[in-house]
Write a structure and sequence with these properties.
By secondary structure, the protein is an alpha+beta fold. It is 31% helix and 26% strand. It contains 6 helices and 7 strands; from the N terminus they run H-E-E-H-E-H-E-H-E-H-E-E-H.
């Protein structure tokens, strides 16, 4: 907004399916989401990658596992708190599991929650572990409220995309500028 003082926006939060619906209904012109959309109806450009991590309560047991070098994939047998099925994060987790020949049904899902704040609260109270965006847990990790495990040594990532309806008059450069601004704010990157 400093560079474009006349610009105005309304920020609405939701999972990837909710963002798709806002775009579809014309209630939003640009959406940021962690899933791709139907290319026949939407333009979708990846603007960043988001690392997925497994989070646990900060207990002596999980601290020991972390010191011993356990990976998040080693902890997938723990009781699990999952996102709702329409979430881009949940879809990315299920794709990760499929690539490793793990049936999503094999997880011990004890709860499904519709937002990261609820998941973090449940994990910190010992309800179970969860796979979540590394961006969503920065403060909790820094404060020592949660522990974070990379799923595998090379990490697990998903694309963050900026999207809009194909029939919306929107200049590509304007949308990508918005994506760069968001990327800069969230990831601290300017490229």
């Amino acid at each position: 907004l400093k560079q474009h003082p006349g610009a105005r926006y309304v920020l609405r939060r939701g999972d990837s399916e909710e963002v798709r619906a806002l775009l579809e209904q014309g209630e939003a012109r640009i959406g940021l989401l962690g899933a791709t959309l139907d290319a026949r109806r939407f333009v979708c450009h990846a603007v960043a990658q988001d690392r997925l991590v497994l989070i646990t309560e900060n207990s002596a047991r999980f601290q020991k596992l972390q010191r011993e070098g356990a990976a998040g994939c080693d902890l997938l047998g723990e009781p699990m708190i999952a996102r709702e099925e329409s979430s881009g994060t949940q879809r990315a987790v299920e794709e990760y599991l499929r690539r490793r020949n793990i049936a999503p049904e094999a997880l011990r899902i004890v709860a499904r929650m519709d937002n990261p704040e609820s998941i973090k609260a449940g994990v910190s109270q010992g309800m179970g572990v969860s796979v979540i965006s590394s961006l969503a847990i920065r403060e909790e990790i820094a404060a020592g409220r949660l522990l974070s495990f990379d799923l595998t040594p090379d990490g697990a990532y998903r694309d963050i995309c900026i999207a809009w309806r194909r029939d919306t008059a929107l200049f590509l450069e304007t949308a990508l500028d918005a994506g760069r601004i968001i990327k800069s704010e969230l990831w601290g990157e300017t490229k």
